[in-house]
Amino acid sequence: KKKKKRNAKDPNYIEAFEKLKKLISSHPILRYPNFDKPFTLTTDASNYAIGAVLSQEGHPICYISRTLNNHEKNYSATDKEFLAILWSVNYLRPYLYGRKFTIFTDLQPIKFLHSKYKGKDMSPRHQRWLLKLGEYDFNVEYLKGKENQVADFLSRIETYLEANQQNSEDNRSSSKILENLEDNASVTTIHSAEEDLHDHFYIKEEIVNKYKMQIILTNNKTEELKILHRKMIIFVAEGDFEEMGNIFKRFITKGKIGIYSEISDHNYNKVQEKLIEMFSNDKQIQFTKCTLRAQDIETEVEAVKQISFYHVRESMHSGILETYNQMRNKIYFPKLMELIQIVINQCDLCQEIKYDRKPIKLKLSLTEAPTEKNEIIHVDTYIMKGNHFQQLFSKFGAAYPLSDRNHITII
């Protein structure tokens, strides 16, 4: 009843609460993502926590939340809402990166902060955060606070560390959680308040072959280690996950390391977490996930064959730069550009047909002036209008119809 406090220890109330938790965290309310449909991200922030829900067509995909640390609690309301967007987008990166999605927030200024960016009118913090969000394709829409119920609830979960230390078992029970909710108190969220926003590797749309050290995650492993073109290639299969730590410990050294994955995102995240666990404190090691892997060409002879075939059959005798741009993500050889230049310069057809792109420029000189009529005549052909003659001496123009455009007829 209204203004009447519910008894959180009532068995019927506890049963209803457990049933509600089960309903919102299972099918058909909670669904698997469909990557052919657009995602919607709804965020909210309070004075002590931030939360978000990822959904499609009104059905949630997952719920996330975390508490704010002492520094973040001093942020303004705008900064807290902005932080909720930044953290949730980075946390849900595997779902959102490379896809267009919509963000709903109940703070109107955030919408204009994204759409009307002017560096001179923004704080350095906002500029940094906008740059981090620049790699995503999204729109920001305003959602009234009373309609933003799910994300609002997730952001209202407060830490209660002292109670957890005194009686952790009671805090885990449903009755204790219900009591805390009734008293507008707090329970600990899944994510730590000190959680780092950068808990993933950066993704680049480039080939992994150019890195001196490469990690290839594949299901078709034929060898563990390969040295090619002074580059170390480490192959890891799903069956190596138990020994994954020993493999990385043996081979990985300082420097930039490229990762290419052919396995599922779930298993890739396991590898990523293991690498973060082992090397997060080593600032001399930097991991980057690459979206492409080119075919490694071992010999120069094979590279020339590939270039010649592509130049004649695929690119139809394109130029050097165009051929290189089309081939650099398909095959990898250290001196690919030089070999392409040699092959095209030795192509007989290209030398016969293509014009000189850098001809010798003639010095400016006076045009020869005629002394009599019909000494110099300019001729041009106009379709439907016959043949047009103009005398340079008299500037007299005349047009005559032609039966055909044969050069004998014209002359």
Beta percentage is 15-25%
Which CATH class of the largest domain?
Alpha Beta
Range of helix content? 25-40%
If helices are DSSP runs of H or I spanning 4 or more residues, what is the number of helices?
16
- In the sheet with the most strands, the strands line up as 6-11-10-7-9-8
For the residues shown, what is the average pLDDT?
79
- Sketch the major β-sheet: 6 strands, mixed
Class from helix and strand fractions: alpha/beta
Oligomeric state of the chains present here: single chain
Between the first and last Cα atoms, what is the distance in angstroms? 106 Å
Number of strands: 16
Enzyme class: transferase
InterPro entries: DNA/RNA_pol_sf, Integrase_H2C2, Retrovirus_Pol_polyprotein, RT_RNaseH
Pfam families: Integrase_H2C2 (PF17921), RT_RNaseH (PF17917)
Protein name: RNA-directed DNA polymerase
Please explain how this structure is put together:
It holds the Pfam family RT_RNaseH. One of its GO terms (molecular function) is hydrolase activity. Keywords: Endonuclease, Hydrolase, Nuclease, Nucleotidyltransferase, RNA-directed DNA polymerase, Transferase. By secondary structure, the protein is of the alpha/beta class. The chain has 4 domains: 11-182, Nucleotidyltransferase, domain 5, CATH 3.30.420.10; 202-293; 298-353; 377-410. The protein is built from 16 helices and 16 strands. It has helices spanning 11-24, 77-91, 93-96, 108-115, 124-133, 149-154, 161-166, 168-172, 174-182, 244-251, 265-279, 300-314, 320-327, 336-345, 348-353, 407-410; strands at 39-45, 49-56, 59-67, 100-105, 137-142, 202-207, 213-217, 225-228, 231-236, 255-261, 285-292, 295-296, 331-332, 377-382, 386-391, 397-400. The strands form 4 sheets. Strands 6-11-10-7-9-8 form a 6-stranded mixed beta sheet, with helices on one face. It has a 5-stranded mixed beta sheet with strand order 3-2-1-4-5. Strand 14 (377-382) and strand 15 form a beta hairpin. Helix 2 (77-91) packs parallel to helix 5, helix 12 (300-314) crosses helix 14 and helix 13 crosses helix 14 (336-345). The chain is extended and about 115 Å long. The protein starts with 10 loop residues before the first helix and ends with a helix. Residues 159-174 and 181-199 have low confidence and may be disordered.
